[in-house]
Amino acid sequence: MTNAMTPSANATDEFEHNPLFVELKNHAYDHLLSRIEELGAEFGRWSQAAIAQFVTLELDSFIRLHAVPVNEREAQQVANALTRELTGLGPLQPLLDDPHVEDILVNGHQDLYVSRGGILQRETVHFRDDEHVLRIVRRILAPLGRRLDESSPMVDARLPDGGRINVIIAPLAIDGPSVSIRKFRKDPLTPRDLVQLGTFNEDICRILEMAVQARCNILVSGGTSSGKTSLLNALASFIPSRERIVTIEDTAELSLNHSHVVRLEARPGSFDGSGHVSIRDLLVNSLRMRPDRIIVGEVRSGEVLELLQAMNTGHDGSMGTIHASSPRECLYRAEMLAGFAGFQGSEVSLRRQIANAVDFIVQIGRLSSGRRRLLSLTEVTGITDNVISMQELYRYEPQIGPDGQEIDQWVSMGISPHSPKLLAWWRAHQAQQNTAGGPR
After folding, report:
1. Complete DSSP assignment for 285-338
2. Could you tell me the pLDDT band of residue 280, with boundaries at 50, 70 and 90?
3. What are the coiled-coil residue ranges (predicted)?
4. Cα-based distances in Å from 355 to 297, 324, 348, 383, 419
5. How confident is the model at residue 184 (pLDDT cuts 50, 70, 90)?
6. E strand or H helix at 190, and its extent?
7. Per-residue pLDDT tens digits for 3-17
8. In sequence order, which residues have a C-beta less than 8 Å from that of residue 364 and are 6 or more positions away?
9. For residues 8 and 10, what is the distance between their CA atoms, to the nearest angstrom?
């Protein structure tokens, strides 16, 4: 039961969505700005606690002067919001602090959406105007040393906590600044976590573990926000601690729980194009860094050629993600990217190189319910009649329960892995299964 002296969360939320809250906050903010101008450089030396006290005192004076009908609790809510404006990130701060929020999307100053559990929802909070959005965004970008103005109207950057921000403003964004913030967990999901969350089952987890430890080359395929990076993070946890890993990303997102990792991140060029360092450049250089494994955060361009060559020339156990809707599409996309990158050989030689390089394709997807599930575990077995051959080991086929809810189910195709790398591991696994009472 809610104590009379302790307002419920519903009451708090209701006032924050009240027009009076918005009006008081906006007018008090203008008043604070005028007071800060009077203080000048002195304000810049104040601590966050001092600023919070300053806001509380000034707001109290403002409320008394204008006879605003709010109680002490409501005044404190306004003071907290104003303090976030002056020291934090305004309307974004509580969303960034919320561990359940995955993505924050701002479409102009009035539309703000967040993704929780894979489902997008519109938030009731919003910015005052487009200038308010830009002020908060520039506060985020300032420590990163990134520029955002008419001459450089697009920014993609990594946040200090490992998240990612993408901003595009006028004249490219017609309806106001567009901001996309992707948050990442401070504690990356482990394979055990993914099993408990229902991303895949124990049998698939065991095969993936064997594939990584046997140094099979793996591509994680899926659409946007399907969980590719989280799955790649989890797979990397199977890599033995004695091995040296080099990760290469456009924007660093991977957070491997491993003792020997070298993280490389591409660098965008300046406004005149100078200084650009691509993933492909980093991948070429990484081959001289004595890596045991190379992990590419996302294969999206010419770096596919270097990755295939690395997989074919002694860097077994390498991994990467790629945007594709199915395992077959994954191979088509790799072939297309290699062609765009200037592959000089024939179509057959390219397909042979892909077939020799890639051992497994792990297809992951985000369902309409927001759940992320492994949809297919497919092995690349070679090339037949100029077509890359594959065999599916597991397929996601959910069942409909009595209450109409989907029940997760992965169907085994009853096929043993074909890769020679996995042969000894698979035989040991089968022997263990037989000793435990036969295969499941």
Report:
1. HHTTS--SEEEEEEE-STHHHHHHHHHHTT-TT-EEEEE-SSHHHHHHHHHHHH
2. very high
3. none
4. 21, 17, 10, 6, 11
5. confident
6. none
7. 433 444 455 566 666
8. 199, 220, 221, 222, 226, 227, 228, 231, 372, 373, 374, 375
9. 5
Which strand (E) or helix (H) includes residue 384? strand 372-384
pLDDT in tens, 382-433: 999 899 999 999 999 999 888 878 899 999 998 888 888 888 777 777 777 7
Answer with the residue of higher pLDDT: 253 or 334: 334
User: For the purposes of burial, counting CB atoms within 10 Å of the CB of 359, is it exposed (0-12), middle (13-18) or buried (19 or more)?
Assistant: buried
C-alpha dihedral (377, 383, 387, 393), degrees to nearest 10: -20
**pTM listed for this prediction:** 0.77
Count Cβ atoms below 10 Å from residue 333 Cβ, excluding itself: 19
What are the beta bridge partners of residue 164?
158, 182
Question: Which residues does residue 101 pair with via DSSP β-bridges, in sequence order?
Answer: 116
Map residue 5 onto helix, strand or coil. coil
Q: Which residues pair with 115 in a beta bridge?
A: 103, 120
d(CA 219, CA 299): 9
DSSP reduced 3-state for 257: coil
Tokens of 302: 């010419």
- Is the backbone peptide bond immediately before 171 cis, with ω within 30 degrees of 0? yes
- Distance between first and last Cα of the chain: 49
Mean pLDDT, residues 210-233: 93
